[in-house]
Amino acid sequence: MVVPRLIERKRDGAALGGDEWRALISHYAAGRVPDYQMAALCMAVVFRGLEPAELVALTDAMRDSGASLPRGTGTLPRIDKHSTGGVGDTTSLILAPLLAACGVAVPMMSGRGLGHTGGTLDKLESIPGFRTALTLEEAARQLDAIGVVMLGQTEEIAPADRRLYALRDVTGTVESIPLIAASIMSKKLAESLDGLVLDVKVGSGAFLPGIDRARQLARTMVALGARAGCPTVAVLTAMDRPLAAAAGNALEVREAIAALRGERDDALMSVTLALGVEMLRLAGIATDDATARARLRAAIASGAALERFAEMVRWQGGDPAVIDQPDRLPTAPVVLPVPAGRAGVLPPLPPRALGAVVTLLGGGRRLHTDTIDPAVGLVTCAPSGARVEAADPVFLVHARDAADAEAAVAALGEVLQAVWEDGGTLLPLVLDRITTADLPSTGALT
Ligand code: URA
Ligand code: CA
Predict the structure, then answer these.
(1) Which residues surround ligand 2, an ion (CB under 5 A)?
(2) Is the residue at 88 inside a domain?
């Protein structure tokens, strides 16, 4: 394998063979192909794309660069959910215990926040003592015992993707549908799943804001899942405003606990239930939407979902007392309101700008190496679309000190001014659902 010839062929629009992709990835993972050659190849893929056979070979090679989550002794259907990420996207924290309470085994392998988006691992780690760095053996054991585990992508899972994603992040090569699809699916397929639900976000706060590209990414991933024998359904959901009222790590854990108590009936809950319905259907536990929805609501009403959350916290070393006493979670010392400034119907609040304020407060990362403050963030008291008076608070800022709080209040005041001027209407929360039935008969791998 002469790597410069492969780069030239891709640059000129030809396809590489499956064996060539497999060799490239295994040599790259072993450190025998340097980053500069891989970066050049990724840039060629950004412009030229991948043919279906190339995409399959790349995905399989990245999955096979590491270990898989063992199947263990459990017989429950194993289903996971993956989101392309957003602000106030607290669905994972609710869905994992909720689906476990309905008889699904949920191995949720998640990431950390970066840029404007939050990360499930950071949120969980705001629970005192909670460990997310589990080995695959530990995760499989916990999954067999209580049907739910939430962990970080271990060193063992798709190491080639970990290295490649870090490289793409700094070489302008993230925005390629085949590279994104291969990256996401290689990790998910290593979980040895019976089914996968993808939450592909659409709107200004999404990774790919436009619906056409989001739909194309969804189709590509659904096709990759089907081809690997993992039934996959994608739901296109709105990220044109933050999903939950809270944005910030401990604040989102509080929100998830309230939702598991049945105290929420908002945008977060609507999207959570839409995704949960798909998970239950893939698990074969419900065959139609209404039955699935009733089952999810019953698991919340009975307290079973909240109890499963407590069990998971206990298993992973966290303090389950936070569930009855949320004040044991990290709490910010300074809380300041931000008034609407005008009376009217509040237009969509821009997730990127709000995510940036969370980062400004210390609740997010600019660099992978930044540490975060779990206590800080925002709570939206008036959601997008609500009618407000000028003096009504739209946000509560939770800050470490007065200076941070005032900076955030000023930044949010500017965001609100722009929002009132720009207006805009909200996207429907669920925009589309994509299954293999939506794929063209020729396949939809690119
Ligand atoms: N998330 C991933 O895991 N990989 C990508 O390439 C993009 C988003
Ligand atoms: Ca559809």
Answers:
(1) 432, 438
(2) yes
